[in-house]
Amino acid sequence: MPAATLEIAGLGAGYARSQVLEDVSFTVPAGGRLCVFGRNGVGKSTLMAAIMGLCRRFAGDIRVDGQSVSAQGPSSRALGGIGLVPQTREIFRTLTVEENLIAGLKSRPRAAIGEAYDLFPRLAQRRHNLGGQLSGGEQQMLSMARTILGKPRVLLLDEPLEGLAPVICDAVMAAIGRLAKSGEMTILLVEQRLELAFEFGEMALVLERGRIVWSGRCDDLRRDTDAVERHIGVGGLGGH
């Protein structure tokens, strides 16, 4: 399936009785690249969870290619083409790398696993190792590869570089860049390493206290040092 347009309209979301996001609206065109920025605790991960159907929706609508998915559960959204790589990675630690990848194939033939090894050659070298035997960086690669094998039309990446060494960050970002250039996926990236995110993204939005306080092109945000310092902080500048 080709990349899909993602529309978020007046979204309010959170957990139990606690609303985290309020009146969040934006559109990412098919094949587009959106970076979501903000300080810790402002609602970035909640936004990803809400799009995936993993938290409570208080208001608003989530549409993929014009079709509302708001009433669907996470499994239906995944089958419909939304894929999430969470901060927690959530690989199967007692399965081998290859068995983890097989779990991500959905209805695709087993030979498609080769796509994951092309994207992350390191995984090919570790294919017989258990998930729990992998380094943090290798687990992140595996989590991403497993999700990508399902050919999501909308790919959600929640801080994929967190805690990774610079060399692994480069490998992960190179893989994300290849996916973006293919035009087969619409990609939303939450990332604290600002320079790497700026290099990747086309569009950007900044969250503060669950609301959008800045939206526009990544290049414009990169130049708006006042907005970066005020709403994000400068800890992520400098790439690595």
Question: Secondary-structure map with pairings?
Answer:
Blueprint: E1 6-15, E2 18-28, E3 33-37, H1 44-52, E4 56-64, E5 67-68, H2 74-79, E6 82-85, H3 97-103, H4 113-119, H5 121-125, H6 136-149, E7 154-158, H7 166-182, E8 186-190, H8 194-200, E9 203-208, E10 211-217, H9 218-223, H10 225-231
- The Cα radius of gyration reads 17 Å
Total count of helical runs of at least 4 residues: 10
Average pLDDT: 92
The helix-and-strand class reads: alpha/beta
Q: What is the CA-CA span between the terminal residues?
A: 34 Å
Name of the CATH first level? Alpha Beta
Task: Report strand %.
Answer: 25-35%
Low-confidence stretches: 236-240
SSE sequence, one letter per element = EEEHEEHEHHHHEHEHEEHH
CATH architecture: 3-Layer(aba) Sandwich
CATH topology: Rossmann fold
Number of strands: 10
Question: What's this model, at a glance?
Answer:
With 240 residues, the chain is of the alpha/beta class. It has helices spanning 44-52, 74-79, 97-103, 113-119, 121-125, 136-149, 166-182, 194-200, 218-223, 225-231, and strands at 6-15, 18-28, 33-37, 56-64, 67-68, 82-85, 154-158, 186-190, 203-208, 211-217.
How would you sum up this structure, described in words?
With 240 residues, the protein is of the alpha/beta class. The chain has a 6-stranded mixed β-sheet, with helices on both faces. The protein has one domain (6-231): 3-Layer(aba) Sandwich (Rossmann fold). Helices cover 35% and strands 27% of the residues. Mean pLDDT is 92; it is low at 236-240.
